[in-house]
Fold this protein.
Amino acid sequence: MFIFTIILTGYLTIMLPELYLLAVAGLLGAIVGSFLNVVILRLPDRSQSIVFPASHCPRCSATLAWYENIPVLSYLILRGKCRHCRTTISIQYPVVELLMALLSVSLIYRFQLTLTAAGYFLFCAALVVIIFIDIHHQIIPDVISLPGIIAGFLFSLVSDAVTWQSSLIGLLVGGGVLYAVALSYALLRKIDGMGGGDIKLLAMIGAWLGWQSLPFVILVSSATGSIAGLIAMRSQKKGGQTRIPFGPFLSLAALLYTFFSREILYFYHLYATGQWP
């Protein structure tokens, strides 16, 4: 029993700092997620600022008290309704907060407390904003993607996760591939099949993750997007006129690669060397 107590104490001594760090990372992620909800709501409207005014109910415009702005908890305590006008609060708010908390914890677990984790935190936050704005408005704001391309290349200069050569090739090829696809589709069908925002987004993904990520991102996003498109065609009954945003599928594939790049590259190697079973 004494030996077991010593082992347990030693284990907790090692694990508690790590658990504390993960808890702090989750809290930080949730707080940032709360701010991202503001960005998602206001950024598409050029007449609004993402800083001013303070958080308020979009229906009755009542300014929210601090205790109405606690990530996730406020939503649960208020039972998903505004305290002032009782309007239903979108489930998107706690979803974004929980998603950023999960991503933040996963980044610390995957990359530890490093500059790489901090950089990819910004990258993940940008992708989350893009996902929800594209779903609601079918646009990918240039104010995110264009600075994101530059930030991704600068990130490669200080991070050991991706080289600057890989980043440069990634942003050039990423943007070039989708531009070629969009141009070919437009020439053949005489209509635009892909927006310029998707092209810039893939260039941004290539800048942050390197050119090695592009086969996976393109394959996974195309497969999942095609499935979603077929479902949408069936439900909307618009045939070839059905339009769905492609940005969320690119972003989700990029998030998967961010966390599982080592495993994905390992399978690349098996396939390239003929060792795939």
